[in-house]
Amino acid sequence: MSRRESAIELPEGDDCAFCDYLSGRRPYTVLWREDQVAVLVTREQRGIGHLLVLPNRHVPSLLHLFDGEAEAMMVALRDAAITIDSAYKRPGVAVWQNNGVAAHQAIPHLHFHVAGTLPGGGTDFGDVPELSVDATDVIGHRLASFVPQRPHSGRRVNSELTNQTLPE
Ligand SMILES: [Zn+2]
């Protein structure tokens, strides 16, 4: 497939952190996987229960997404919001997504952010601490039992999160 013409300036870099997380080359908390989509617990928690929804395929930006992937992504986004709502019962759930360096895209693999709002309202776009994978596993454990079932998408919640006895 030829590269789509676009004015968007993507972040540079040969290796993709998200592809490394999805393949298991680098550790990260995967909340659930589907045939086309995965949902991760980000180490930079900018809200409560902050998740990343991304296509399994290395899709550089929203402009590069196939129709079938777009459908699967929107269903997963909805269910990520439902999962956060069920687990944390926040008064708001924010969803955001950036394309191009000028829009603050840092990794050239499409990802949507989904996060429950903070006690003061909104989400934190300043400096936030980078949590350990152990800490994001705890968040994933809290969320895992609330993930809606969707077997037709191939959805599989990470059994390491549901089986482990992690602190709440
Ligand atoms: Zn990638």
TrEMBL record:
Task: Please give the organism.
Answer: Mycolicibacterium komossense
Q: Enumerate the SUPFAM superfamilies for this protein.
A: HIT-like
Cross-referenced PROSITE patterns:
HIT_2
| Residue spans of biased composition, Polar residues class | 159-168
PANTHER family reported in the protein's UniProt record: ADENOSINE 5'-MONOPHOSPHORAMIDASE HNT1, HIT FAMILY PROTEIN 1
Protein name per the record = HIT family protein
Instruction: Motif Histidine triad motif — list its residue ranges.
Output: 109-113
Annotated region described as Disordered, given as residue ranges: 149-168
- Name the domain of life this protein comes from: Bacteria
Task: List each copy of the HIT domain by range.
Answer: 17-125
Q: Report the InterPro entries cross-referenced here.
A: Histidine_triad_HIT (IPR001310), HIT-like (IPR011146), HIT-like_sf (IPR036265)
Give the signal peptide, or none: none
List, alphabetically, the Gene3D superfamilies matched. Answer: HIT-like (3.30.428.10)
